Amino acid sequence: MSRELRFRLGDLLADGPRCDFFGDEELAGFVENRLGAARLDAFDRHVAGCVSCSELVDDLAMFRKLTTAGVTIPAELASFRTVDGGVRRRLSRVALGSRLRTLFYWLSPVLVSLLAVLLFWPSPEFMIREIETMPFLPPPAVRSADLGQAWRQVGEAWGAGDMQRAATLLEAAVAQSPEEADLQFYLGHARLLNGETERAAAALRQADRLQSDAPSEHTRWMLAAALERIDREEEACAALRSIVEIGATRASEARGIVERDCR
């Protein structure tokens, strides 16, 4: 884990009670999406019953959004300004201007080349280029009143387009009913829409396992999308071929992708 990430986590977690279930290295792994599926499942089960860790996971999710968006934690920004001010006081404006002109003179060809590369570099294209948001359709029969309430809450978040909240609610519901295939599918779908591709693939694999008696083309379509986004193209192609074999509504599109992009 980088020193910058340790600094930011330390700033985030400095106050409030801490549960000993999460170690510092595991927290870093959680933030950086490096945890395996088994440990993530253990996290999900623990967080469902631990208020402190549930709040911590919410904070970490917000932290990840902030750092991904480039927002700087106030303490880190203050530290940067202090160092920056010290450097500027040591350099005269004349010396700084001279150095910048010299630097620009030598780097200008490199900068021009880099700009050309950035302008004309092709954006990555996936076999499944767009991931649509599927309608949220709970199963006709719900096993318990508690689970029924969970479905209603997830449906509200889903309808509002708040996939982060939907994923959090689904994680708690999956912890209560891990063998519910529909919960696992929607959890994987929400994670995929949130860009959590590793965790999305884990949930979608579980959903596919639970649907082994009646495979779902939608589950395998989302699984293929998740797999290719984590550089598992061969497995993604295998999932698409299985959709062709199922022969439902996505079969024609899956066949076209296989013929075009899969060896």
Features of the shown structure:
about 260 residues; mainly alpha; Serine Threonine Protein Phosphatase 5, Tetratricopeptide repeat; 13 helices; about 70% helix; disordered N terminus
Summarize the structure.
This protein is mainly alpha-helical and 263 residues long. It is 72% helix and 0% strand.
CATH superfamily of the largest domain: Tetratricopeptide repeat domain
Average pLDDT works out at 75
> Count of helices?
13
What top-tier CATH class of the largest domain fits best? Mainly Alpha
Contiguous uncertain segments of 5+ residues: 1-12
Please indicate the percent range of residues in DSSP E strands (runs of 2 or more). Answer: under 5%
CATH fold-level topology of the largest domain: Serine Threonine Protein Phosphatase 5, Tetratricopeptide repeat
Shape: globular
The structural domain count equals 3
Instruction: Please summarize the sheet with the most strands.
Output: none
How far the N terminus sits from the C terminus, by CA atoms, comes to 37 Å
- Give the H and E element order: HHHHHHHHHHHHH
Question: What would you say the CATH architecture of the largest domain is?
Answer: Alpha Horseshoe
Helical fraction: over 70%
Radius of gyration, Cα only, in angstroms? Answer: 24 Å
